[in-house]
UniProtKB/TrEMBL annotation, chain A:
Pfam families: SGF29_Tudor. This is SGF29 C-terminal domain-containing protein. The lineage of its organism: Eukaryota, Metazoa, Ecdysozoa, Arthropoda, Crustacea. Keywords: Coiled coil, Nucleus, Transcription, Transcription regulation. Its main location: nucleus. Residues 47-113 are annotated as: Disordered. Residues 267-408 form the SGF29 C-terminal domain. It comes from the Eukaryota. The keyword Transcription applies. It is found in: Nucleus.
TrEMBL record, chain B:
Keywords: Nucleus, Transcription, Transcription regulation. Residues 78-123 are annotated as: Disordered. It is found in: Nucleus. It comes from Petrolisthes manimaculis. The lineage of its organism: Eukaryota, Metazoa, Ecdysozoa, Arthropoda, Crustacea. One of its GO terms (biological process) is regulation of transcription by RNA polymerase II. One of its GO terms (molecular function) is transcription coactivator activity. PANTHER family: TRANSCRIPTIONAL ADAPTER 3, TRANSCRIPTIONAL ADAPTER 3-RELATED. Pfam families: Ada3. This is Transcriptional adapter 3-like. GO terms for cellular component: nucleus; SAGA complex. Residues 88-108 have a biased composition (Basic and acidic residues). InterPro entries: Histone_AcTrfase_su3.
Amino acid sequence: MFKEHRNEDFGSGHQYYYCGIGGDFLGVHHNSWSDYCSQAIGRNSKVGKWPPHIMGKGKDKNLGSPKRSVDSPKSPKMRGSGDASSSSSSSPAYRREQLLRSSPLPPITVTPYPLSTSTEMAMAMSSEAQALQERVKVLSDVVHELQRSRDENIPHMNAINQLSDKIVSEEKLAVSNRNKLKGMYEKCSVDTEREVTLMKKALNTVYQIRNIRHDLRIQAKNSGNKETIRRGALMKMLLNCAQTLPLWIGSSGEKPPPLCGAVPPEQNYVAKVNDMVACLVRGSEGEDNWILAEVVNYNAATNKYEVDDIDEEQKERHTLSRRRVYPLPLMRANPELNPEALYSKGSIVMALYPQTTCFYKAVINRLPTLATEEYEVLFEDPTYADGFSPPLMVAQRYVIQIKEGGKKK
Amino acid sequence: MDLKDCPLSLPVVGSLDHARSLPRYTSLLNGEGVAMEELDGLQLELELLLSSVLVRQVAISNNLSIIYQLEKGKYVPKPATSPGKKMKREDSDRPFKKMKDSSGKSRDVVPTPGPPPGVKPSKVLHVKCSVQKYEPVFDVPDLGPPEQPKPPPPKNDVTNRFWAYVEQYCQEITVDDIKMLEELVNVPGDDSDYYKTPPLGRHYTLRWAQEDLQDEQKEGLKLNEGKKKGVKADTPDLPEKLLKEVDMNGCSDDVAPLGPLTQRLIAGLVEENVLVSDIENKGMDGLGVTRPGLIKSLGLSSASSIEKRIKKELQDQGVMESDYGNEDDEDEILCELRRCQSELRAVSQHNATQLTRLLNLARDSLVRHDLKKRLRDADHKVIEAYRTIAAARQKKKTPSKKDKDFAWKAIKDREAIVRQLDLASNNNC
């Protein structure tokens, strides 16, 4: 299941991945991050995905039983009771619509972007570092202003709630109350608009800072800092990219654009250089695999992409026709506002198997309910009794439409 | 307006508790600044915050637009699902006045007070239906192919199904099975019907002609009924008359119903006449055709009886041997029928032998099952005896005589059963 199984040379140079399963490997690289461990459990199960001829070569006794029972990688984060939709008009009595979850939001965990100290230092010494600090100042100011505005709005919203409760207890909507409510809603609408504007501003600043940092990283990398990225770091990088993929925020009624969540790209879309794509690559054993890669170049004359395998150890550059390349989403869809831009439960998709750089066929088992959550998918895996892996979490970015033409064997 | 008819959702508005849910945002507010490493987290927190505010914004603008509609005196139906952005579209489709409290109960049916002129109740319903129907259509293009619901992954119960399937072939034979086999064996071979060769019926060309005629009659009857009723009285007799004619024609015109012997006989008798008539009327052919009255004049009821009589006469006279004239051999259909009959005979015989064989086997194995059951009981007894003796040994006591006797008895019983079982299986093999 690791991309090595595209390699015939299996014995040498890759010990790193399967020595000390579950223990050393995790301990070394992911000590501080609890979520990681749960995802890494999935890695053991993946052993079952290895082709039979590999399973038989004696290495597998290190790997443990492929059918080791696996708990659900992430505990399901509070769902249900406080949800906005559940309270609407199911019981005969009038129920007010609940917009906020009653329970606190699940804690947000982000995989830190892995950076070596040398890169970090190179970045700190760059002339851009000053610009970064200024942005952070701007960000801080915006956030303070935002919070002031939020604080100011709270009393007014409480007034709305009080009036609404009064209407509910009277069981009818009198004209006077209706007019009062109208005025309050109008004011609240204006207030909310201001909050939205400030939040967008803050977010934009964050995106700017991120972009600067990204440029700096590339600079540092190009300026002779040619350390190879270890696999653990690569995985972290991929997770970080997926988690911090910008969230699409549209004005009300606007449709999510192509490449937001599950919305497919336009017919003639061409992925840009440095974009990540899924591409169908023929391995040395003649088998097709959907791998994660980065676009290097697109030749419009031949309709062909040049892509680099994201896994640096593969050191492979492929030239592939457009059909074999599928761009990853450029934005996350917001489950709260644009559920239509998510794959529905039971959809068959291609998803990146956790801790690998390959996409495999999977079924959506649970949708994210918050922008920060991920899909829960079941991978097709004949080594399990029911033909599917235990539920695994995959970020929106790494779930793509299944391509019928490019079925893997 | 009664609240239960009110389309407003009166949302509970509020602000996300940042101190509880958004730690990085909170720490930035408290002047602790933000480290570069925390920027990613801050981004996600801001995004969540924005999302929650946008949800509020959508809800409020929906409620606000409903209020505007209500103010204009328009009737706004209560949304069936959570309010969404389709609200506006629905509003514009429903140009009804606001209802009074009294008619609140029948909200969905007809808005009685003052619907705009020209809008009839039936149309009201129609508009509503069409809106609901169109809704998925609006959404489909947005969703694209991957959004279509797919069946949930099927559970892999092939193994269970396999074992369930195999089980009935492996289970022990019961008395019921034997009963069923006996019934099958003793079923009276009611195949005699299939071994009979039915007599020849009328030739199919005749039957078809008759059926065609009847059909045409019916058709004509219908037409006639449609046109005039005066003819009605005559019609019932008409088909019968025609049928009779056909029958007569069949006898006189067609040579087929005459058996081969009859034909030969007539040919022998009337050959010269035929020749004569041949000369006289060129082009005429066939026997009996030239003399339509011949058969009738012989005063015989049917062709087959003539054939039989001629055959019998010829045999009695010694002109023809008794087994001669089995011209049936040339009848393809009869040959096929005979072939099928012999096949059926063979198959049913085979079935019968197989059934009896199975029955015998089943009876044997029933006996063996019995023995095996006893063997199991005996095994239990032996093990029990062993346990008591072993327990005694553990306590460093010699086992009592009673225990010993019991053990010996159990072992001997078991051996006897094993021998019987061996015997039974040897007999079978």
